[in-house]
Amino acid sequence: MRASRFFISTLKEAPSDAEIVSHQLMMRAGMIKRLGSGIYTYMPTGLRVIRKVEGIIREEMNRAGAIELLMPLVQPAELWQETGRWDKMGPELMRVKDRHGREFAIQPTSEEVITDVVRSELKSYRQLPVNFYHIQTKFRDERRPRFGLMRGREFTMKDAYSFDRDVAGMQQSYQTMFDAYSKIFTRFGLKFRAVAADNGAIGGTGSHEFHVIASTGEDALVYCPDSDFAANMEAAEALSIGERGAANQPLAKTSTPGKTKCEAVAELLNVPLQQHVKSIALTVEHEGKKTYFLLLLRADHELNEIKVSKVEGLKDFRFSTEAEIQEVYGTVPGYLGPINTRAPVVVVADRTVANMADFICGANEADYHYTGANWGRDVAEPLVADLRNVVEGDASPDGKGVLAIERGIEVGHVFQLGTAYSEAMGATFLDENGKPAPLQMGCYGIGVTRILGAAIEQNFDDKGIVWPDSIAPFELVLCPMGMDRSEMVKEQVEKLYADLQAAGIDVIVDDRGLRPGAMFADWELIGVPHRVVIGERGLKEGNLEYQGRRDDAATSVPVDEMVAFIK
Ligand code: ATP
Ligand code: MG
Ligand code: MG
Ligand code: MG
Q1: The pTM is what?
Q2: Is the CB of 530 under 6 A from ligand 1?
Q3: Which of 225, 357, 463, 487 has the greatest CB tally within 10 Å of its CB?
Q4: pLDDT exceeds cutoff 50 at 250
């Protein structure tokens, strides 16, 4: 590639809405351009990185025996109704109508469509196991799109779906994908960790997330440096580990047979469940002072437990009494009406209170939540940190050491789904005895575009991005000094350019005629990992200057040895 025929557009300053370093650097390096909230154009330099990420994923998926296809972006509502997700998914699922008034989903993921493909195409156990994948645009109407490509609304995902005849087969397919993911993230050159995860709303039996380790990550990861134990915070908490875990039982155990926990809590509190919002009134008594909280929950989420026992001074956290509800909120069953109370309102969208920081800032969606119910992230986050049932230094559940906590960015997720989708959609195969049985399914996602943000969060300095070689937009940049003035330089640049290309190196020549300072600054910002400077002075001594993106100084390399040196 020649820079004069490519498109490079760098900025000195990042736009003010770019909060984290990867977003700032991608904007400054001209890799993405914002079109709307969570919607970006992938500019040529950024697209090169995306293509490299996709290339590695594709190679390893194919090597692991998965088969590529491509499913539509726009999917009929009927399929989503079959599994119940049309109703369950809430506003994150983008819905559109065609000219005939028929409804469609813009896919956030494709379990329904692949299960539909498979139920009509697969007939016999002889065709199993099979694993289909695609690399496709996704749309999720995220409550709070942010951090550039990290949490976009439109983004690219690789999603794969395995089908097996029995549970053992599904577990083997899962392991194959787990291993492929480990290879993929190793090839990206990123520091990552696989952690056990909750299955969440998707249902099923087993799940792991792959996280790129970065201090700016949204997720807390719990692991034991002396053993294999690793789980995300929610999964670790679900194990009720932590030295204080046993002593501090959740305040309310609300498992009532046949009822969701929210229904049971509502019954306990004698309040009606509203269509979109469930609520729970809580009272904290401390040193004679009472504080009231109203927890609002999205109706499609389930509150597992109320874990508040670790908040200093909040020992007397309990459900509000009817009298308190009446006093604070007005009438008892009607307190879900317009909120004009003296109580702070905590809004919880996720399944556990420990996740509430996620939700608080975005809680006031029109026509979905009550307005004016924002407690604020600054108040919530320290409290949420304290709410955790697992802290550094707790004993590891395997007894092999103590736990450490680090932050990560979720870049991949593998699930054992079992028969949840195949049963809902009637996807069966004929087993060896000719009897129909539901397919055992797994699903496996990688956030292709999120990888860019995650890689930068892990690899940058004050000059810009430092791409790992395997996913860099270009592996090497040739920077000629005074190419227009010196025939010697010009000749050597052309020769080296041809030799490096022949050696399979993804090289760009900066023939834009910029001054050295501006030229170097651009490539340091863009994050090309290797640079070779070609100047007349060095050439007269038979040398070129090599500098790795992380090196403090350049190294002189004899002209004839440069290609071998780079390889
Ligand atoms: P998150 O917890 O960050 O919202 P998720 O658990 O909802 O992610 P999955 O349904 O597991 O996401 O999707 C598979 C992968 O897709 C994730 O591991 C992540 O890398 C990526 N991904 C999910 N949502 C987004 C998004 N809004 N923007 C970019 N990538 C995303
Ligand atoms: Mg999500
Ligand atoms: Mg997640
Ligand atoms: Mg996930």
Answers
A1: 0.79
A2: no
A3: 357
A4: no
